[in-house]
Specification:
Layout: H1 5-10, H2 17-35, H3 47-67, E1 72-73, E2 79-87, E3 94-100, H4 101-120
Antiparallel strand pairs: 1-2, 2-3
Helix pairs in contact: 2-3, 3-4
Length: 140
């Protein structure tokens, strides 16, 4: 576990412990994916990794909250969520900003990826290996 519940609360987290454990596992899997598991087995987790985990947990929490909002069915492929983008009064004109659930999920994944890149760029593990290095080290 890269971020404990106590540390999460210190950063200002509001989830209960059960929800935190589920979302933390998901966030950790993202970090492991992008770092090629270079943090697995580390005794000391760097502070920037903990902050990255907190930020990813917030993104996943927000994504889950958005997915629980009322969704209307579109006639083609997937569900979509509509929000009012603009309104007019006298001529009664309303424009909706519609984004499909698939597009929302893709945007959320991109946010997580960008957060990992931003927080973990140049960070190394105890063996001196850069976490985001896309190559392979000789003994890996």
């Amino acid at each position: 576990m890269y971020l404990t519940y106590a540390e999460y609360q210190e950063y200002g987290g509001t989830l209960d412990e059960t929800a935190f454990n589920d979302i933390e596992f998901e966030a950790e899997s993202y970090v492991n994916w992008y770092t090629f598991d270079r943090l697995c087995g580390e005794d000391e987790i760097p502070e920037c990794v903990k902050k990255c985990m907190y930020h990813i947990i917030k993104l996943i929490q927000k994504q889950l909250e958005l997915m629980n909002t009322p969704i209307t069915s579109s006639e083609d492929e997937s569900e979509s969520s509509a929000q009012v983008a603009s309104e007019a009064n006298d001529g009664v004109s309303v424009a909706y900003n519609v984004i499909s659930a698939n597009e929302a999920l893709e945007l959320a994944k991109k946010d997580v990826e960008n957060s990992i890149k931003r927080y973990l760029q140049g960070v190394t593990n105890s063996l001196g290996r850069k976490l985001l290095y896309r190559g392979i080290y000789p003994d890996e």
